[in-house]
Amino acid sequence: MFWNTTPAWTHSATQFDYFSNPDNGYINGQIIDVYKGQTASGKGSQNIPIDDLSAQVSSLGVQPGDLLYFYKDDGIHHAAVVSEVADGKILYSANSITRYDHDLEEAIKNEKGILIVRLKDESNWHIEPHCICDSCIYFFFSINRM
């Protein structure tokens, strides 16, 4: 099957490396690793077992526009955007399988874990001029929190 996507959508690990690098000015605090099983990925500074997530959501500082990176044993394979945080749940939007306000705890069932990159409100966001797809526009407006 052939997917007509821009390269940015096929390089989730590269996106994670860029946005989680403090030198680039986007990340706000530590990487949060919500994991299933016995061990976290080793990429997070704050590791939370999935069973403890709902009890800790309000203290994590996650907000709409923050980035989610899904991983399995072979590494990061998908990116999504937090769309809402309410009632002890983190909801997200993504486009491989159409998702809008989908529960993060449901999504982790098929993953080893999910990395959360909290973004600074004052970051200077831009969208590449050649990319005006719905996903990028949603991403741009949801994280342009200045």
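The record above closes out task 2.4. Task 2.5 opens with a second protein, given below.
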Amino acid sequence: MNMQELGGLVRKRREALGLSQQRLAQLAGLSRTTINLLEMGRLTDLGIAKVNDLMDLVGLTLHAQFDEHLQTNAILMGSRSASVSYKEILTPDELLTALSTGEIPSGRDAHVASWLDEASLKLVVSSVELASQKTAVPPKQIWKHVNAWARKFHSPRQAWF
């Protein structure tokens, strides 16, 4: 759930409870402007403690769940992400083998560099997890491969350093 979706839910609950934005703000210990920005989808961050307290106040719950769809398709999605700018593609099998062995297939350095720099970190994490599950290589070893590639390709992404 993102802040825009949360804002819509809070608005529906506030209205169902017969509360004005001002009254909800007072009850939640927030400003009316904060409530308004949240409901309009223009608030970028509120902090987990305040979100949790506000949701509890209006009878909503926040729960985390494992994104199984992303995890099961991470290698496929990662190979596609790595291949967007190239005529030749990095296949899912090539990415899986590279992650598990640390050896990048010939002619695929640019693909892996793109994957490191441009794929969402969520996708990278899921790819490492799936590669570990499929190959029985410990995730810590796969992360060593990823970090070595980041150094080799001088990745500008701060997450690797």
